[in-house]
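Subject: Sanity check before I submit

Could someone independently write out the structure tokens for this chain? I want to compare against mine line by line before I put it in a report. The sequence has 293 residues.
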Amino acid sequence: MTTTSDSSQRLTLFAFFLTALLGGGNSVAVRFSNVELAPYWGATIRLGSSALLFWSIVFLWRIPIPQRRDAIVLLLTGFFGVGVSFGLLYFGFVKLQASLGSVIIAMGPLMTFFFAILHGLEKFRWKSLFGGMIALTGIAIAARAQLGVNIPVLSVLALVAGSAISAEGNVILKIFSPKSDPMATNALTLSAGLALLLVVSFLMDETHNLPTLPATWIAITYTVIPGSVIMFYLFVWLLSRWSASATSYVIMLFPIVATIAGSLLAGEKITLTFILGGALVLVGVWIGALMKK
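---
Independent answer below. Compare away.
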């Protein structure tokens, strides 16, 4: 039994770090897709393709759809936690570099922690708060190393709001994730988010073109398959095994991955200050999410 438990723990940790790797790369991919595609239209293509893949898997594998009440809750969660949140995040990334944007999004775990307490889903734990504050300090140090002189305030506010809405959505998903298969859960939530973003794209009178640049196609492919289908499945799977706040700590690793990827692909600079901040983030994540009680 101990061997089985250890194997399950290793699998969960592997899924946690793989989610961090895939999610961190999304910020850079979105920056590339925003060069050629209007933000809401780019998000629509991403969610539409991802939802189509999830529904294909649901029907081919004959995965049961959640009961009506649960399905309605998941659709509403997708509308706000995916649609509204993604719309704000994509808007913010138009003018913010990937590393700084990921740093702002990394506030999500602390938001999730407090939202879970407000919902009565989790009890207050000093360890989680302490780990979150350490990681947040590391994020602030890493952000200082990446900051430029001109920061678009509206973009920052959009990312903060999008992160808060996403955090609340994660708590709701934690409540309902044990009741449905991750494939069906993602199919429903992404479809609801897709409907909102498509409407917003047309209301904003965006250009609805297909990508022409190879870099854009690569970015879209990444955000759809590794960055959405695989990552969202893993995240919902983790929610079924860990608390909402512990699972959300994966977001605090996104800035590290995003900045390394940004340095390799977009020429963003990595400094010793950033490395120090990144080390603190790792310590905070370990204390807040991975360290045994």
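---
OP: Matches mine. For the report I'm noting this point. The CA atoms of residues 79 and 192 lie 5 Å apart.
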